[in-house]
Specification:
23% of the residues lie in helices and 26% in strands. The chain has 219 residues and is of the alpha/beta class. The longest helix is centred in the middle third of the chain and has 12 residues, at 132-143. The structure holds NADP nicotinamide-adenine-dinucleotide phosphate (NAP).
């Protein structure tokens, strides 16, 4: 079975994802409602966070103690190039119970070795880029992931939409037109065909925001 996938983004009125101040309080309070089994985060998104990353310590190389009763989501990041080298830090954050990297057959072996040393689980799927439909199926079947909230930029949003993997889109519209202040769009121009949507709800949120929810109409 395919997991249900929800794209949740804070957008400007001209559909940019950066170049304005996101109301994080409202954005994450809305995000919490899905109680996703996995948060799918783009590698560029995770690496763009301004966090100061502490160096690895010996403890980071010990097997993590996992609690079967832990209901927090899994953190899942497609990273075929092996760019994310901050897993020890991501795993220490309180938002997720565990982490999974999605890699491909061309991901450098040295990166897989790095993941193994840190006890970060990974799924090999796809030849060059991660085969998203196959990876999501494995997450469902092997990790019981039924609901995914995607927290990513236009690149991964577009790849998910192109593969027909998105069920719902949630946009928290901020009262600003960014113009050339940013090139990061919610959906990239590489999307090859229109995606038809059905409006589920449109709600004014304080202060001065609009929350739009759409269902993706499948042909
Ligand atoms: N306002 C908001 O709500 C919001 C939310 C999230 C992010 N952002 C912003 O968005 C920006 C990052 O966006 P971005 O578009 O550059 O990057 P992104 O979507 O965060 O990251 C690109 C991801 O797409 C994957 N990918 C690319 N092509 C693919 C394909 N054909 N098949 C499968 N996976 C594919 C990449 O995997 P590989 O590494 O394997 O190539 C990578 O994980 C940041 O500035 C961030 O702050 C804003």
């Amino acid at each position: 079975m395919n997991p249900k996938v929800i794209l949740h983004n804070a957008v400007s009125l001209d559909m940019k994802l950066t170049g304005f101040e996101v109301d994080m309080g409202v954005y994450y309070s809305l995000a919490a409602q899905w109680q996703e089994d996995a948060t799918l985060v783009g590698s560029a998104t995770i690496l763009s966070a301004p966090d100061e990353i502490p160096p690895e310590t010996d403890r980071d190389f010990l097997p993590p103690v996992l609690d079967a009763a832990d209901t927090r989501a899994l953190l899942v990041i497609p990273d075929s190039k092996g760019a994310v080298r901050i897993w020890h830090y991501l795993r220490s954050l309180p938002y997720w119970r565990d982490c999974i990297a999605l890699v491909s057959e061309t991901t450098p072996a040295e990166y897989l070795d790095y993941l193994s040393k840190l006890h970060i689980r990974y799924i090999v799927c796809g030849i060059d880029k991660v085969d998203l439909p196959a990876a999501l199926k494995i997450l469902n079947e092997a990790y019981r992931v039924n609901t995914i909230r995607a927290d990513c930029g236009g690149t991964l949003n577009t790849a998910l939409l192109s593969n027909g993997l998105v069920d719902e889109i949630s946009y928290l519209v901020h009262p600003v037109i960014v113009g050339n202040g940013s090139t990061v769009k919610a959906v990239n121009d590489s999307l090859g065909r229109p995606v038809n949507l059905e409006l589920l709800s449109a709600e004014k949120m304080e202060p001065n925001l609009v929350w739009l929810r759409y269902k993706v109409v499948t042909e």
